[in-house]
Specification:
Elements: E1 29-33, H1 38-42, H2 44-50, E2 53-57, H3 67-80, E3 87-91, H4 100-111, E4 117-120, H5 126-142, E5 150-155, H6 158-162, H7 164-168, E6 174-179, H8 181-188, E7 203-205, E8 215-217, H9 222-234, E9 238-241, H10 250-263, E10 268-270, H11 276-282, H12 287-299, E11 307-309, E12 312-314, H13 316-335, H14 337-343
Parallel strand pairs: 1-2, 1-10, 2-3, 3-4, 4-5, 5-6, 6-9
Antiparallel strand pairs: 7-8, 11-12
Helix pairs in contact: 3-4, 4-5, 12-13, 13-14
The chain binds glyoxylic acid and magnesium ion.
Residues 60, 121, 154, 156, 180, 182-183 line the site of magnesium ion (MG).
């Protein structure tokens, strides 16, 4: 553990100072694109307008013989476009792969001043973050990068889940974490073949009482997402749900995203354009809830004491929940004119 007095010091002479607070940004949807695909790159200008974060994926789903083309395609994409309020991220290959070092050094060298966040897969413990943190500081100093590039970890191994708290508190460069159900299932030896979502056989049933036994599905991911949300919230960083692999199952995707939203996640990945609108809808607060939250803030202007709204008791704790909701609605309204109307802000 670093000494508290050293925690916010730059890790290399000439690197920008680490941030004390995360930049306030709307990140409901992290849209994954394969940068080696020319057709995808040709459409990128329109995609940027449609999503909150555009992520060039270099890791899983990119074949070994396309790794270099993906890296080069990402650099080209980053150079040729203006991103405005849309975040520019990349998911590099894991630190244990032969590609990670070149991914990081070439991308920071070429487009480090445009890159907001590096997503690091298969993070096992704080040592992975410390390594990338130091390397980024050296590269930032070398290439005169103006603002620190943040790190976003994927929580997708059993060891990572075991170390989730120390990963979350490992560096001021930590932006947040995404939950990776596919690799996590593999790492744990779960008997599934899916990427996120429920499983028809993971259920509890009522006692036998002669008739048909009531039964309901359980959530395979509840425990780990809960741990991730607590670790992130306690450290002032952001938790996200990751991928939902059944592209055709829009309802399944929406339910998985919504469960994570209700648990505290602030966004999710989209692997296909048809998941973008789902993520934007789910991770924007419901206009009815926003209207109710505004009334709570109105009846308790300084956030203390007790008030009543529609017969329901309100106090400091509901005021804080209401503030989370209204602050998020304001952020959404800045980017999304249609929702701004609905929120009446
Ligand atoms: C994401 O990378 C996952 O493994 O689910
Ligand atoms: Mg994965």
């Amino acid at each position: 553990m670093k000494l508290p007095k050293n925690f916010f010091k730059p890790l290399a002479l000439g690197a920008p100072a680490p941030l004390r607070e995360l930049p306030v940004r709307l990140e409901r949807v992290i849209h994954f694109v394969p940068p080696h695909n020319e057709k995808v790159r040709a459409r990128i200008k329109d995609t940027i307008k449609d999503v909150d974060v555009l992520l060039g994926n270099l890791e899983d789903a990119v074949p070994a013989d396309a790794k270099e083309a993906a890296r080069k395609g990402f650099i080209q994409m980053a150079k040729e476009n203006e991103f405005g309020t849309t975040g520019l991220w990349t998911r590099v290959n894991s630190l244990a792969s032969p590609w990670a070092l070149d991914d990081i050094t070439e991308i920071v060298g070429a487009v480090g001043n445009k890159l907001d966040v590096i997503m690091l897969p298969k993070v096992e413990g704080p040592w992975d973050i410390h390594y990338l943190d130091q390397l980024l500081a050296q590269l930032e100093a070398k290439h005169s990068i103006k603002k620190p590039i943040l790190i976003h970890a994927i929580l997708e191994t059993a060891e990572g889940v075991m170390n989730v708290e120390s990963i979350a508190s490992s560096s001021p460069r930590m932006h947040g974490m995404s939950f990776g159900p596919a690799d996590l299932a593999a790492s744990r030896g779960m008997k599934t073949t899916r990427v996120g979502g429920g499983h028809p056989e993971y259920r509890v049933i009522a006692d036998p009482d002669g008739g048909k036994r009531a039964s309901s599905l359980q959530d395979l991911w509840h425990y780990s997402i809960g741990r991730m949300v607590d670790a992130c919230a306690a450290n002032g960083i952001k938790p996200f749900y990751g991928p939902f692999g059944d592209i055709a199952d829009l309802e399944g995707c929406e339910v998985q995203f919504r469960n994570s939203f209700l648990q505290g996640c602030v966004g999710a990945w989209s692997l296909h354009p048809n998941q973008v609108e789902i993520a934007k809808r789910v991770f924007s607060p419901d206009p009815k809830e926003v209207a109710f939250a505004k009334r709570i803030l109105e009846v308790m202007p300084d956030g203390t004491g007790v008030g009543m709204v529609d017969g329901k008791m309100q106090d400091d704790a509901t005021w804080k929940q209401a503030k989370v909701m209204v602050d998020l609605a304001r952020l959404v309204a800045q980017k999304d004119p249609a929702r701004k109307e609905l929120y009446k802000l």
